[in-house]
Amino acid sequence: MSTLRRDTIDEDQYKPFDQGWDAFLEQKRESRNPWAINNWKHYDWQEGWHACEDNDSNTSDEQLH
Question: In this model, does residue 36 exceed pLDDT 70?
């Protein structure tokens, strides 16, 4: 498993994007987004979750070659 972002950056720099990234690494479902849909943090969290998902699938594809 990759290193969680919360373990590598300062707490004041840990943003919803990073929380979403870590949530994917911790195998949490996208539907577990803790932010209300009418909050901008919801979308930042979701963006982080998807970015990690994309990064994970790209890494998996590279390992196959």
Answer: yes
CA separation for the pair 30, 43 (Å, rounded): 11
Three state DSSP letters for the chain: CCCCHHHCCCHHHCCHHHHHHHHHHCCCCHHHCCCCCCCHHHHHHHHHHHHHHHHHHHHHHHHHC
Q: What are phi and psi of 29, to 5 degrees?
A: -70, 150
The domain ranges of the chain are 15-59
Does the predicted model carry a pTM greater than 0.90?
no
